[in-house]
Design brief:
Layout (H helix, E strand, L loop, with lengths): L7 E5 L10 E4 L12 E6 L2 E7 L14 H10 L4 E10 L9 E3 L2 E5 L24 H13 L4 E3 L2 E5 L7 H9 L4 E3 L2 H10 L3 E11 L11 H25 L24
Parallel strand pairs: 1-4, 1-5, 5-11, 6-8, 7-9, 9-10
Antiparallel strand pairs: 2-3, 3-4, 5-10, 6-11
Helix pairs in contact: 2-5
Length: 270
């Protein structure tokens, strides 16, 4: 049986466990173990798409245990070169409220202990990461969201915490005081691993709450995050489908050249 191929990958976040209505399930093995779940491959309009739920369809992987390397490797091995990454985030800015969409252009890593490279043996490989996200993907996401009447913030900094706990108020105020925009638990190392595979990577972040230090109250709970996301998941699925259609068919962004001139210790898949 011929394994289906895909041009675009979607990694679904909390509450976003399916995307394609008519799809083929593909079981993939990688040098880093299995991905979070069976990958499904199908079509959205004229585009071939591979989908993997980041936490697994039963949400069995907490953020610090997600097999990030396997997920990205599996997508690239199917032919994927552009990745969309919808996720649930907390807002660090009073003016960005629940229901808003943020398409960040920067990231801050506050995780610890996560493996964040493919190139940890066989020779040193330094990959540039000054601009973590694909400019073409970001432009397509922002334009599509605005056309669909989303309240969208173009740009901003996503700070990624280790989890699975939420931030303390002091941490949240510190993040906010640094001028950062949103906080989540899964955008890193996903973004750098995509760059190490020369993939385009675009984060599409749905704000589910204000973080603990931004407003008074008891602080958000995981159940509240999932409940809010569930009320918006249909709209998010529709948006991601529209962004898929809007992504350029030919890559002209710098992402495809991320590994130019670098000596890699192994061949990349796909």
């Amino acid at each position: 049986m011929v394994t289906p191929r895909a041009d675009i990958g979607v990694i679904g976040g909390s509450g976003f466990y399916s995307l394609l209505d008519d799809a083929t399930e593909v079981e993939i093995t990688t040098p880093y173990g299995p991905p979070s779940d069976v990958v499904t491959v199908g079509r959205i309009g004229s585009r071939s798409v591979a989908f993997v739920p980041r936490h697994g369809r039963d949400h069995r992987f907490p953020p610090h245990r997600i097999p990030y390397r396997a997920n990205l490797w599996a997508l690239r091995s199917l032919g994927v070169r552009q990745v969309l990454a919808p996720s649930a985030v907390g807002s660090l800015r009073p003016e960005i409220g629940p229901g808003a969409l943020v398409v960040p252009d920067q990231i801050v890593d506050r995780t610890s202990g996560r493996v964040q490279t493919y190139y940890d043996a066989g020779g040193v490989v330094h990959v540039a990461f000054a601009d973590p996200y694909c400019p073409s993907g970001r432009a397509a996401a922002v334009s599509t969201a605005r056309s669909a009447d989303w309240e969208v913030t173009d740009g901003g900094t996503l700070v990624v915490i280790e989890g699975p706990r939420f931030s303390s108020r002091a941490e949240s105020r510190w993040f906010s005081g640094n001028g950062w925009s949103i906080v989540g638990m899964t955008g890193f190392p996903e973004s750098i691993l995509a760059r190490e595979l020369a993939l385009c990577y675009t984060s599409v972040s749905l704000v589910t709450d204000h973080d603990a230090g931004v407003e008074a109250g008891e602080g958000v709970t995981h159940d509240e995050v999932l409940a809010f996301f569930a009320t918006n998941v249909g709209r998010m699925r529709s948006l991601i489908g529209d962004v898929v259609a809007a992504l350029p068919e030919e890559r002209t962004c710098p992402c495809q050249n991320a590994l130019d001139g670098l000596k890699l210790p192994f061949d990349l898949p796909g």
